[in-house]
Amino acid sequence: MRAARAAFAEAGGGITLEEIAQRAGVGLATLYRHFPSKDRLVREVVEELMREEIEPAITRALAEQDPLRGMSVMLETVLTLASGQPGILATARDAGALTADVAPRFIQPLTQLMRNAQAAGQVRADLEPDDLKRMLVMLLSTLRPAEGPDEGWRRSLVLLLDALRPDGATPLPPATPPARC
C-alpha cells in the first residue's frame, strides 16, 4: 500500500502494477493476490488516506469550538494532501475511487460544521451543502500539480472563507437541485 500510494502520488495513474510491485519489492503475482486490479488498488489507497489522514482531520474539526475553524481544518487537510500528492487525486478520480460511499464521509461532517457555523452567525444563512461541494472543486482547481507542492491554495481558502461570512453578503440566486456525490 505504501509503495502504491507513493507511486500514484508521484507518477499518477500512468504507473503500471508491475512498477508498483517492483517498488514494493514483491512479485506481480503477490500484488495481484492482494489487489486483483489496478482500480481495486487505487480504491484501497483512497480508503487508507481516508483512515489515516481525512478521518482524523474530521474528528479534530468536529471537536473545534469554532465551527468555521472546523470547516477550515477539513478543507486545509484535503488541500494539503492534494497539493502534496497531486497524482493521487487524479488517479482516484480516473479510477472511479471517489465513489458515492467515500465523498459523503467528508461532505456530511463538513455540512454539519456549515450548519453549526450558520447557527452561530459565522456563515451566511443561504449557503447550501451543494455550494460546499462546488467550493471544494473550485479550491482543488487552484492547485498547480505540474509545478510540485503548491501553497497558493491557502490564499484562495482564506478568500473563500471570508466570502462565506454573512456581513455584507449579497443574496444568492436560488440554489440548483443538489448534485449527487
UniProtKB/TrEMBL annotation:
Coiled coil: none annotated. The keyword Transcription regulation applies. Keywords: DNA-binding, Transcription, Transcription regulation. Residues 16-35 bind DNA. Transmembrane segments: none annotated. GO terms for molecular function: DNA-binding transcription factor activity; transcription cis-regulatory region binding. Residues 1-53 form the HTH tetR-type domain. It comes from the Bacteria. The keyword Transcription regulation applies. This is TetR family transcriptional regulator.
